[in-house]
Amino acid sequence: MNPSQTQPQPQTAEPQRAEPQRAASQPQPVIVRPLARVIPSQPTSDGAGVRLRRSIGAHPGARVDPFLMLDEFSSEDAADYIAGFPAHPHRGFETVTYMLDGHMRHEDHLGNRGHLTPGSVQWMTAGRGIIHSEMPEQESGRMRGFQLWVNLPARLKMQPPWYRDIAPAELPVVALPAGGSIRVIAGEIDMAGVRHTGPIAGPRFADSTDPQVWDLILPAGGSFSHGLPAGHQGFIYLYEGEARVGEDPGSRVLPAHAAGVLGDGNAVRITAGLQGLRALLIAGRPLREPVAQYGPFVMNTQDELRQALADLHAGRLALPAD
Question: What domains does the chain contain, in order, with CATH numbers?
Fold first, then answer.
Protein backbone atom coordinates (compact mmCIF):
# COMPACT_ATOMS: atom_id res chain seq x y z
CA MET A 1 0.00 0.00 0.00
CA ASN A 2 1.27 3.46 -0.92
CA PRO A 3 0.88 5.79 2.16
CA SER A 4 0.45 8.86 -0.10
CA GLN A 5 -2.82 7.42 -1.34
CA THR A 6 -4.41 6.96 2.11
CA GLN A 7 -7.56 9.08 2.36
CA PRO A 8 -9.16 10.37 5.64
CA GLN A 9 -12.31 8.46 6.61
CA PRO A 10 -15.59 10.42 6.12
CA GLN A 11 -17.46 11.41 9.32
CA THR A 12 -20.83 10.03 8.14
CA ALA A 13 -20.81 7.04 5.93
CA GLU A 14 -21.71 3.42 5.84
CA PRO A 15 -19.28 1.21 7.73
CA GLN A 16 -16.18 0.57 5.68
CA ARG A 17 -15.79 -2.92 4.31
CA ALA A 18 -12.59 -4.56 5.40
CA GLU A 19 -10.15 -5.11 2.56
CA PRO A 20 -9.68 -8.76 1.75
CA GLN A 21 -6.59 -10.29 3.32
CA ARG A 22 -3.75 -10.89 0.91
CA ALA A 23 -2.99 -14.52 0.53
CA ALA A 24 0.16 -15.47 2.38
CA SER A 25 3.00 -16.38 0.06
CA GLN A 26 2.83 -20.09 -0.55
CA PRO A 27 5.95 -22.17 0.06
CA GLN A 28 7.46 -23.54 -3.09
CA PRO A 29 6.79 -27.25 -3.60
CA VAL A 30 9.79 -29.44 -2.89
CA ILE A 31 11.10 -31.01 -6.08
CA VAL A 32 13.81 -33.55 -5.33
CA ARG A 33 16.47 -33.62 -8.00
CA PRO A 34 16.86 -36.96 -9.76
CA LEU A 35 20.19 -38.59 -10.55
CA ALA A 36 20.37 -37.59 -14.21
CA ARG A 37 23.80 -38.89 -15.21
CA VAL A 38 26.73 -40.83 -13.79
CA ILE A 39 30.32 -39.89 -14.66
CA PRO A 40 32.68 -42.67 -13.50
CA SER A 41 36.14 -41.56 -12.42
CA GLN A 42 39.05 -42.60 -14.61
CA PRO A 43 42.56 -43.45 -13.36
CA THR A 44 45.11 -40.93 -14.62
CA SER A 45 48.13 -38.95 -13.46
CA ASP A 46 48.97 -35.26 -13.25
CA GLY A 47 51.69 -32.97 -12.00
CA ALA A 48 54.99 -34.85 -11.91
CA GLY A 49 53.24 -38.22 -11.98
CA VAL A 50 50.76 -38.11 -9.08
CA ARG A 51 48.26 -40.95 -9.48
CA LEU A 52 44.63 -39.91 -9.13
CA ARG A 53 41.08 -40.49 -10.34
CA ARG A 54 39.31 -37.87 -12.49
CA SER A 55 35.53 -37.73 -12.92
CA ILE A 56 34.31 -34.21 -13.74
CA GLY A 57 36.53 -32.96 -16.56
CA ALA A 58 37.79 -36.36 -17.69
CA HIS A 59 36.82 -35.07 -21.15
CA PRO A 60 35.09 -31.85 -22.31
CA GLY A 61 31.66 -33.51 -22.27
CA ALA A 62 32.12 -34.42 -18.61
CA ARG A 63 32.05 -30.86 -17.27
CA VAL A 64 29.17 -29.64 -15.08
CA ASP A 65 28.96 -25.85 -15.50
CA PRO A 66 30.52 -24.05 -13.62
CA PHE A 67 32.73 -26.97 -12.53
CA LEU A 68 35.59 -27.90 -14.82
CA MET A 69 37.29 -30.78 -13.02
CA LEU A 70 37.26 -32.94 -9.91
CA ASP A 71 40.26 -35.11 -9.01
CA GLU A 72 40.40 -37.60 -6.14
CA PHE A 73 43.85 -38.65 -4.94
CA SER A 74 44.25 -41.46 -2.42
CA SER A 75 47.22 -43.69 -1.78
CA GLU A 76 49.36 -45.10 1.01
CA ASP A 77 52.22 -45.67 -1.43
CA ALA A 78 54.47 -42.63 -1.45
CA ALA A 79 55.56 -43.46 -5.00
CA ASP A 80 52.05 -42.46 -6.12
CA TYR A 81 52.31 -38.90 -4.80
CA ILE A 82 55.84 -38.02 -3.72
CA ALA A 83 56.71 -36.14 -6.96
CA GLY A 84 53.85 -33.72 -6.26
CA PHE A 85 52.90 -30.78 -8.42
CA PRO A 86 55.97 -28.61 -9.08
CA ALA A 87 55.61 -24.96 -10.13
CA HIS A 88 52.96 -24.51 -12.82
CA PRO A 89 50.74 -21.65 -14.04
CA HIS A 90 46.98 -21.05 -13.95
CA ARG A 91 44.71 -18.38 -15.43
CA GLY A 92 40.95 -17.83 -15.57
CA PHE A 93 39.44 -20.02 -12.85
CA GLU A 94 39.59 -21.14 -9.21
CA THR A 95 41.12 -24.23 -7.61
CA VAL A 96 39.91 -25.83 -4.39
CA THR A 97 42.11 -28.34 -2.56
CA TYR A 98 40.50 -30.33 0.26
CA MET A 99 42.72 -32.63 2.31
CA LEU A 100 41.38 -35.67 4.14
CA ASP A 101 44.70 -37.27 5.06
CA GLY A 102 48.30 -36.21 4.72
CA HIS A 103 50.25 -32.97 4.51
CA MET A 104 50.99 -30.75 1.52
CA ARG A 105 52.84 -27.46 1.12
CA HIS A 106 51.70 -24.68 -1.20
CA GLU A 107 53.90 -21.85 -2.48
CA ASP A 108 53.27 -19.25 -5.17
CA HIS A 109 55.10 -16.49 -7.05
CA LEU A 110 53.63 -13.85 -4.73
CA GLY A 111 55.50 -15.30 -1.78
CA ASN A 112 52.44 -16.95 -0.21
CA ARG A 113 53.04 -20.22 1.59
CA GLY A 114 50.53 -22.57 3.13
CA HIS A 115 50.48 -25.94 4.86
CA LEU A 116 47.52 -28.18 4.09
CA THR A 117 46.75 -30.61 6.92
CA PRO A 118 44.01 -33.25 7.36
CA GLY A 119 40.61 -31.57 7.15
CA SER A 120 41.93 -28.27 5.76
CA VAL A 121 41.05 -26.45 2.55
CA GLN A 122 42.79 -24.05 0.21
CA TRP A 123 40.61 -21.90 -2.06
CA MET A 124 42.67 -20.15 -4.73
CA THR A 125 41.46 -17.71 -7.36
CA ALA A 126 44.02 -17.79 -10.17
CA GLY A 127 42.46 -14.77 -11.86
CA ARG A 128 44.76 -13.16 -14.44
CA GLY A 129 47.61 -15.46 -13.49
CA ILE A 130 49.43 -17.30 -10.76
CA ILE A 131 52.40 -19.67 -10.68
CA HIS A 132 52.37 -22.06 -7.77
CA SER A 133 53.44 -25.48 -6.54
CA GLU A 134 51.81 -28.12 -4.34
CA MET A 135 54.30 -30.56 -2.85
CA PRO A 136 53.96 -33.35 -0.27
CA GLU A 137 55.18 -32.61 3.24
CA GLN A 138 55.59 -36.32 4.00
CA GLU A 139 57.64 -39.22 2.69
CA SER A 140 55.33 -42.04 3.75
CA GLY A 141 51.77 -42.67 4.91
CA ARG A 142 48.40 -41.97 3.41
CA MET A 143 47.75 -38.98 1.18
CA ARG A 144 44.07 -38.46 0.38
CA GLY A 145 41.98 -35.55 -0.81
CA PHE A 146 40.42 -33.72 -3.73
CA GLN A 147 41.04 -30.87 -6.11
CA LEU A 148 38.09 -29.08 -7.69
CA TRP A 149 38.31 -26.52 -10.51
CA VAL A 150 35.61 -23.84 -10.58
CA ASN A 151 35.23 -21.63 -13.65
CA LEU A 152 35.05 -17.85 -13.43
CA PRO A 153 32.76 -15.59 -15.49
CA ALA A 154 34.46 -13.72 -18.32
CA ARG A 155 34.25 -10.41 -16.44
CA LEU A 156 36.24 -11.85 -13.50
CA LYS A 157 38.83 -13.97 -15.27
CA MET A 158 41.47 -11.23 -15.23
CA GLN A 159 41.02 -10.16 -11.61
CA PRO A 160 44.08 -10.19 -9.32
CA PRO A 161 44.93 -13.62 -7.89
CA TRP A 162 43.71 -14.41 -4.37
CA TYR A 163 43.80 -17.34 -2.04
CA ARG A 164 42.81 -18.43 1.43
CA ASP A 165 44.05 -21.29 3.61
CA ILE A 166 41.21 -22.63 5.76
CA ALA A 167 41.99 -24.58 8.92
CA PRO A 168 39.74 -27.50 9.92
CA ALA A 169 38.39 -25.55 12.91
CA GLU A 170 36.99 -22.90 10.54
CA LEU A 171 34.70 -25.38 8.82
CA PRO A 172 31.28 -25.81 10.47
CA VAL A 173 30.49 -29.47 11.18
CA VAL A 174 26.75 -29.97 11.63
CA ALA A 175 25.31 -33.05 13.29
CA LEU A 176 22.35 -34.53 11.40
CA PRO A 177 19.19 -35.49 13.32
CA ALA A 178 19.24 -39.13 12.21
CA GLY A 179 22.99 -39.58 12.56
CA GLY A 180 25.96 -38.53 10.51
CA SER A 181 27.28 -35.06 9.87
CA ILE A 182 27.94 -32.50 7.19
CA ARG A 183 30.97 -30.23 6.89
CA VAL A 184 30.30 -26.91 5.18
CA ILE A 185 33.20 -25.76 3.02
CA ALA A 186 31.32 -23.30 0.83
CA GLY A 187 27.81 -21.90 0.96
CA GLU A 188 25.41 -22.66 3.78
CA ILE A 189 22.91 -25.15 5.13
CA ASP A 190 19.87 -24.70 7.35
CA MET A 191 19.39 -27.38 9.97
CA ALA A 192 16.53 -27.24 12.49
CA GLY A 193 16.11 -23.53 11.79
CA VAL A 194 19.78 -22.72 12.39
CA ARG A 195 21.86 -21.46 9.47
CA HIS A 196 25.44 -22.72 9.22
CA THR A 197 27.65 -20.76 6.83
CA GLY A 198 30.98 -21.99 5.53
CA PRO A 199 34.09 -19.83 5.21
CA ILE A 200 33.62 -19.55 1.45
CA ALA A 201 30.48 -17.42 1.20
CA GLY A 202 29.39 -13.80 0.95
CA PRO A 203 29.42 -11.14 -1.79
CA ARG A 204 32.76 -12.16 -3.35
CA PHE A 205 31.41 -15.59 -4.23
CA ALA A 206 27.75 -14.65 -4.71
CA ASP A 207 28.97 -12.34 -7.49
CA SER A 208 30.51 -15.30 -9.27
CA THR A 209 29.16 -18.88 -9.04
CA ASP A 210 27.70 -18.91 -5.49
CA PRO A 211 29.35 -22.29 -4.81
CA GLN A 212 27.97 -24.85 -2.37
CA VAL A 213 30.53 -27.47 -1.28
CA TRP A 214 29.57 -29.89 1.50
CA ASP A 215 31.26 -33.05 2.81
CA LEU A 216 28.60 -35.53 3.95
CA ILE A 217 28.92 -38.55 6.27
CA LEU A 218 25.94 -40.89 6.75
CA PRO A 219 25.61 -44.10 8.79
CA ALA A 220 24.20 -47.30 7.32
CA GLY A 221 20.66 -46.66 6.08
CA GLY A 222 20.85 -42.95 6.92
CA SER A 223 19.51 -40.27 4.62
CA PHE A 224 20.00 -36.56 4.04
CA SER A 225 17.58 -34.14 2.41
CA HIS A 226 18.14 -30.42 1.93
CA GLY A 227 17.21 -27.56 -0.33
CA LEU A 228 19.47 -26.62 -3.21
CA PRO A 229 18.96 -23.44 -5.28
CA ALA A 230 16.81 -24.30 -8.28
CA GLY A 231 19.04 -22.37 -10.67
CA HIS A 232 22.23 -24.15 -9.61
CA GLN A 233 23.79 -27.15 -11.33
CA GLY A 234 25.45 -29.75 -9.20
CA PHE A 235 26.64 -33.25 -8.57
CA ILE A 236 27.40 -35.73 -5.79
CA TYR A 237 30.77 -37.48 -5.67
CA LEU A 238 30.63 -40.69 -3.64
CA TYR A 239 34.06 -41.58 -2.27
CA GLU A 240 33.12 -44.18 0.33
CA GLY A 241 30.25 -46.63 0.72
CA GLU A 242 27.00 -47.01 -1.16
CA ALA A 243 24.30 -44.49 -2.06
CA ARG A 244 20.95 -43.96 -3.70
CA VAL A 245 20.15 -40.50 -5.03
CA GLY A 246 16.69 -39.07 -5.57
CA GLU A 247 13.24 -39.79 -4.25
CA ASP A 248 11.65 -43.24 -4.35
CA PRO A 249 10.42 -44.86 -6.49
CA GLY A 250 12.68 -42.99 -8.90
CA SER A 251 15.91 -43.07 -6.90
CA ARG A 252 19.02 -44.51 -8.55
CA VAL A 253 22.22 -46.12 -7.28
CA LEU A 254 25.36 -43.99 -7.45
CA PRO A 255 28.51 -46.15 -7.67
CA ALA A 256 31.55 -45.39 -5.54
CA HIS A 257 34.21 -43.13 -7.06
CA ALA A 258 31.75 -41.61 -9.52
CA ALA A 259 30.10 -38.21 -9.92
CA GLY A 260 26.32 -38.27 -10.01
CA VAL A 261 25.01 -35.25 -11.92
CA LEU A 262 21.77 -33.92 -10.48
CA GLY A 263 18.74 -33.11 -12.62
CA ASP A 264 16.32 -30.22 -12.21
CA GLY A 265 14.70 -29.45 -8.87
CA ASN A 266 15.16 -27.45 -5.69
CA ALA A 267 16.21 -30.15 -3.22
CA VAL A 268 18.55 -33.10 -2.96
CA ARG A 269 18.10 -36.45 -1.23
CA ILE A 270 20.78 -39.09 -0.70
CA THR A 271 20.42 -42.38 1.19
CA ALA A 272 23.26 -44.57 2.41
CA GLY A 273 23.51 -48.32 1.89
CA LEU A 274 24.60 -50.92 4.44
CA GLN A 275 28.14 -49.55 4.59
CA GLY A 276 27.16 -45.95 5.22
CA LEU A 277 28.72 -43.33 2.97
CA ARG A 278 30.98 -40.35 2.55
CA ALA A 279 30.28 -37.99 -0.32
CA LEU A 280 30.90 -34.49 -1.58
CA LEU A 281 27.85 -32.49 -2.61
CA ILE A 282 28.87 -29.68 -4.96
CA ALA A 283 26.65 -27.12 -6.70
CA GLY A 284 26.98 -23.68 -8.25
CA ARG A 285 25.34 -21.12 -10.48
CA PRO A 286 26.09 -22.01 -14.11
CA LEU A 287 27.87 -19.40 -16.21
CA ARG A 288 26.54 -20.53 -19.60
CA GLU A 289 29.60 -19.07 -21.33
CA PRO A 290 31.95 -20.58 -23.92
CA VAL A 291 34.83 -22.56 -22.41
CA ALA A 292 38.22 -22.55 -24.09
CA GLN A 293 40.74 -24.65 -22.18
CA TYR A 294 44.37 -25.48 -22.74
CA GLY A 295 45.81 -27.35 -19.77
CA PRO A 296 45.97 -24.92 -16.83
CA PHE A 297 44.39 -22.01 -18.74
CA VAL A 298 40.61 -21.63 -18.94
CA MET A 299 39.31 -18.70 -20.95
CA ASN A 300 36.37 -17.99 -23.28
CA THR A 301 38.08 -17.83 -26.69
CA GLN A 302 41.04 -19.34 -28.50
CA ASP A 303 42.52 -15.85 -28.89
CA GLU A 304 42.50 -15.47 -25.09
CA LEU A 305 44.28 -18.81 -24.75
CA ARG A 306 46.93 -17.73 -27.22
CA GLN A 307 47.37 -14.51 -25.24
CA ALA A 308 47.77 -16.50 -22.01
CA LEU A 309 50.49 -18.64 -23.60
CA ALA A 310 52.22 -15.55 -24.99
CA ASP A 311 52.07 -13.90 -21.56
CA LEU A 312 53.54 -17.02 -19.95
CA HIS A 313 56.42 -17.24 -22.40
CA ALA A 314 57.11 -13.51 -22.09
CA GLY A 315 57.08 -13.63 -18.29
CA ARG A 316 53.95 -11.46 -18.09
CA LEU A 317 51.37 -14.02 -16.94
CA ALA A 318 51.69 -13.35 -13.25
CA LEU A 319 52.46 -9.62 -13.42
CA PRO A 320 49.93 -7.06 -12.11
CA ALA A 321 47.60 -5.64 -14.72
CA ASP A 322 48.70 -2.35 -16.34
Answer: 35-313 (2.60.120.10)
